[in-house]
Amino acid sequence: MTTAAFACLMVISLIGYIWNRQAATAIRQDGARLHSLVGFHGAYSLLVVLVPALVLILLWLLLQGPLIDALLKSGIRTELDGLGSGEVQLVVAEIKSIARGVVFGTPEPWKMDAAQRLTDLQARSGQMLLVLVAALSLALVLFSRRKVTAEFRARHGVERIISGLMIGCSIVAIFVTLGIVASLMFETSKFFAKVSVIEFLFGTNWEPQIPLREDQVAAEGAFGWLPVMIGTLVITVIALVIAVPVGLMSAIYLNEFAPRRFRAVAKPLLEILAGVPTVVYGFFAILVVAPAIRTFGQSLGLDVSPNTALAAGGVMGIMLIPFISSFADDALSAVPQSLRDGALGLGATRAEMMTSVLFPAAIPGIVGGVLLAVSRAIGETMIVVMAAGLIAKMTLNPLDSVTTVTVQIVTLLIGDTSFDNPKTLAAFALGMMLFIVTLIINIFALRIVRKYREAYD
Amino acid sequence: MYDLPTLENNVTTETLKFTARDVHVYYGESEAIKGVDVDILDNTVTAFIGPSGCGKSTFLRCLNRMNDTIPICRVTGDIRLDGQDIYDRSIDPVQLRAKVGMVFQKPNPFPKSIYDNVAYGPRIHGLANTRADLDVIVEKSLRRAALWNEVKDRLDTPGTGLSGGQQQRLCIARAVATQPEVLLMDEPCSALDPIATAQVEELIDELRQDYSVVIVTHSMQQAARVSQKTAFFHLGHLVEFGETSHIFTNPSDERTESYITGRIG
User: Fold this and answer.
1) Stretch among A76-80, A130-134, A371-375, B78-82 having the lowest mean pLDDT
2) pLDDT band at B228 (very low <50, low <70, confident <90, very high)
């Protein structure tokens, strides 16, 4: 029935388009000067019909489910009396499956009746939707047809509706973000009801092993986020120490010094790096880099753990190289040719031109790229899940095993969980902190970019 | 309008600065300059005129090897600065460009302060040992470019914040600060209003005391006002080269006359 409603709407709106267009054409052929092109008269009708009708269909689809459920339950109120909410849900699900024709055993007759009523309700809802959509769209077609005159500003109307749609789209994005933050905050507040904020923010011990059931034997649990966050920072710093110099140098070389043929080969190759899935980087870290670091470290007599921060951070750094290099390359390419000419014309070498003119001019773009890379490194999950450790240690030693915020969120949420346990809720608190840290970095990035931005005209 | 400068007053020396013989320039397959011979004198303003695409800017860019930065560009022939072949292997284009400064069509100040813009050349070439020396060079250059009085109180503000005419004079100051022997100007006034143009033209006339100036221009009035020698380019050929007063009053080639009187262009 919904499909029929859609089809009906399409046909009617198309008729509206053609009708308005022809009406406008007729006015023009009578010799009058139209304010708007005939196409705008058609588009006006199309939009005036489509937008409200689509909103109606959307609302109907959203609301009919709960409404039908409520009607169904009120019909079998006596039978449901005295049942818990879980049992009611089971009964409703059984009725629904009967209505779909899936019958297990021999259900009670009242359930069969209820299923029959459900089918009727659904059919009626579909019919009502079809009728309503048809009526609304026809009314709107007539409304917009009556508007067609030589003076009617159809173009303004179309522009207003389209800008309204654009506003709507941006509002959707904003509300989704707010929704995510709100849900995160809700769960986080539940966590902080069980664990004190002070302990979480300043505690140096992270041992989220907590009994899920009364009879389980486990430690009491400790929720200090500092060791986890320090693990994230250690790995991020290692990643950047590798990615920033390599990425910048390769961008500078490719942008200014590389022969064109080399650039044509090297740049796509570098971009392939960006296309490698992070899981594959994880393999690489755990199978190649970590053993290599361990062997090398042991040959020097160092104590290297199997899951080193160095391996995870190093591979993450490799992952970030194309990111930084392509940002820096874009920023350098955006510096106008006239500045290059100006520096060269004064007798600057290409190196002097690069360091004293191009690079400073490209700094905002480069800093933006680096800080985006930082955000990615902090939020990166797969590589560290595979290559970093699970035990939180308060250490800055890159040869030791550390864990990260993202790794902990993953381990807290897989396996047996229950959503009122501090162990599970701790994942949301960590997510919240991660969100705040990246937010601060992004704000900082925007400030730097704005401060050093230079306008070229 | 200024009167046409006369030969006797303006050409003070006859020292040769540049000599170009049989210069050809190719962009890939197409030949942009087809065998140009020209002599450029010291302490003289030489104007290159001609219709768009005739190769005058390309030829100008040969004189400080700026064409080297264009990968597909190839230059043949013989160009000598003070008798030295500038396309010789032993010549470092970077040092050549320090001697042969260039001012571009569009003002292109660096996104740095006014002071740093002017100090750029002296810094990279090590012309000043102390900050005080550098201050002197910057002030002198800005005075030469007739910009000092307008910017002396805001030397640390960005050069990109100046008006178009001021920016172009800043670029001239920047070129002068490097203490070049020759100054190449590629349509330096095309982005300027008449007042700024007049200021720059006045400046060019003063610069002639110390430098050899080569200017590419689309404005024949400008060529007549500022130059002593004029070269007329057409379709990659140097059609006519001689005293400005002679070219503008009594051109010997028919094409020159047509261009000056506005029949081709």
Assistant:
1) A76-80
2) very high
CB atoms within 10 A of CB A260: 8
Least CB–CB distance from B120: residue in A346, A361, A456: A346
Tokens coding B265: 């262009």
As a dihedral over the C-alpha atoms of residue B217, residue B220, residue B221, residue B223, rounded to 10 degrees, the angle is 50
Residues with Cβ within 8 Å of A454's Cβ and at least 6 positions away in sequence, in order, are A361, A364, B111, B158, B160
Which tokens go with A357?
């003119």
Query: pLDDT tens for residues A96-119?
Result: 888 888 877 787 888 888 888 888
Q: State the smallest CA–CA distance between residue B243 and chain A in angstroms.
A: 28
> Does A336 touch chain B if contact means CB atoms closer than 8 Å?
yes
Query: What is the pLDDT confidence band of residue B52, given thresholds at 50, 70 and 90?
Result: confident
Q: State the ipTM, two decimals.
A: 0.84
Q: Does A337 touch chain B (CB under 8 A)?
A: no
A-chain CB neighbours of B94 within 8 Å are 347-349
Cα–Cα nearest to B41, from B243, B248, B260, B245: B243
- pLDDT bin (cut points 50, 70, 90) of residue B7 is very low
For the whole model, what pTM was predicted? 0.75
Rounded-to-integer distance, Cα A129 and Cα A67, Å? 14
Closest-CA residue to A145 (of A36, A35, A15, A54): A15
pLDDT tens per residue, range A272-288: 888 899 999 999 998 99
CB-hemisphere CA count at 13 Å for A170?
5
Confidence of residue A214 (pLDDT cuts 50, 70, 90): low
Residue A223 β-bridge partners: A206
Distance of alpha carbon A142 from alpha carbon A145, whole angstroms: 5
B110/A344 Cβ within 8 A: no
A78 class by beta-carbon count within 10 Å (0-12 exposed, 13-18 middle, 19+ buried): exposed
Q: Report d(CA B206, CA A147) in Å as an integer.
A: 71
Residue B178 with chain A: CB contacts under 8 Å: 346-347
Give the whole-angstrom CA distance, residue B99 versus residue B64.
Answer: 8
Contacts 24+ apart (CB under 8 A), B92-95: B93/B64, B93/B65, B93/B68, B94/A347, B94/A348, B94/A349, B95/A347
Angstrom distances, CA of residue B109 to CA of B114, B160, B213, B251:
8, 6, 21, 39
More confident residue, B3 or A298: A298
For an interface test with B, the pick among A256, A346, A454 (most B C-beta atoms closer than 10 Å) comes out as A346
pLDDT band at B9 (very low <50, low <70, confident <90, very high): very low
**pLDDT tens figures, A261-273:** 898 898 888 888 8
Q: For residue A211, what pLDDT is reported? A: 59
Rg (C-alpha) for chain B, rounded Å, is: 18
How would DSSP label each residue in B119-147? HHHHHHHT--SSHHHHHHHHHHHHHHTT-
Which residues of chain A does B110 touch, with a Cβ-Cβ cutoff of 8 Å?
Answer: 339, 342-343, 357, 361
DSSP letter, residue B87: T
In 3D space, the residue among B211, B213, B202 whose CA is nearest the CA of residue B244 turns out to be B213
Residue A62: exposure state from Cβ atoms within 10 A (0-12, 13-18, ≥19): exposed
Residue type, B69: T
**Which residues touch A90 (CB under 8 Å, ≥6 apart)?**
none
Least Cα separation, residue A246 to chain B (angstroms): 26
Q: What is the DSSP annotation of A180-220?
A: HHHHHHHHHHHHHHHS-HHHHHH---EE----SSTT-----
